[in-house]
């Protein structure tokens, strides 16, 4: 089979397709033929050697995939050859085959394509857990979403609206504003100003009657973090899910005390490894929201398998609106 492998960490262009042996499932394993793989910003960090979890080289990167079960090992229950599935993995999705375990594997609802399923992986799980588990979101609350035109931002808007939120989307351009509104955002907050410390709060207060936002989802860090803190309501909750802006900010604890604000973080893979039963529940609700029509992954582009390095570079440069996927096998 064909597989991308990280032999030495580096730029996405360093990735090459290698021919390796086909895989065979052993006890407790499911063999999946990959049809489509999602692309995420952490994939860029993994390839570059900058992610917090790095397998021993050589390895195949990629965290989201959808495909068909080709075979199962001894003691596997609930899956059989021919099942259409979505899988969440630490690495291995950028290949034609993968070995997974049942807790990593979810049967696709009828009508959900491989490409859209692959786009509903890491970002939707992250957005849901950030909103509900870490952010303590309750229906009717106001949510501010940073990086609203990215994968996590898109997912958070859709899930937030599906769960009954009033959503404020932080954007930088007119095209990002249009994208956020198309995904259901109630208001857009312009963060293109070089000094968003005051301008963000002014805009938020204008649409919340001066109350501020109850929950902030922050995949950016940088200047957005501090500005968002100043725009929070009493007992607001800010959830850090990444640092796409490049700078890891700090916080003055007295500010949290004065407004009863809480700041927490989300590392999705810890939920996957420590509480797989919660991941099952979350995935089931994401599928429910898809059936309801609230969740609609927006695919900016479908890349041929051979163009994966180009797709990763676009992610790294912030040129992807919503999600991009790699087509690995027939659809």
Largest sheet: 7 strands, mixed
- Would you tell me the overall average pLDDT? 95
Cα radius of gyration in angstroms: 20 Å
**What gross morphology would you assign?**
globular
Number of strands: 15
> Could you give the distance between the termini?
18 Å
Helix content: 25-40%
Order of helices and strands: EEEHEEEEHHEHEHEHEHEHEHHEHE
> Which secondary-structure class do the elements indicate?
alpha/beta
The proportion of strand residues reads 15-25%
Total of helices: 11
Low-confidence stretches: none
Lay out the secondary structure.
Elements: E1 2-5, E2 16-19, E3 30-38, H1 41-48, E4 64-72, E5 84-88, E6 97-100, E7 105-107, H2 114-118, H3 122-134, E8 142-145, H4 151-162, E9 166-171, H5 174-182, E10 187-190, H6 196-208, E11 213-218, H7 222-230, E12 232-240, H8 253-259, E13 262-265, H9 268-274, H10 276-292, E14 299-304, H11 308-316, E15 323-327
Parallel strand pairs: 8-9, 8-11, 9-10, 11-12, 12-13, 14-15
Antiparallel strand pairs: 1-2, 3-4, 3-6, 3-15, 4-5, 5-7
Helix pairs in contact: 3-4, 3-10, 6-7, 9-10
Outline of the structure:
The protein has helices at 41-48, 114-118, 122-134, 151-162, 174-182, 196-208, 222-230, 253-259, 268-274, 276-292, 308-316; strands spanning 2-5, 16-19, 30-38, 64-72, 84-88, 97-100, 105-107, 142-145, 166-171, 187-190, 213-218, 232-240, 262-265, 299-304, 323-327. With 331 residues, the chain is α/β, with parallel strands linked by helices. Helix 3 (122-134) packs across helix 4 (151-162), helix 3 packs across helix 10 and helix 6 crosses helix 7 (222-230).
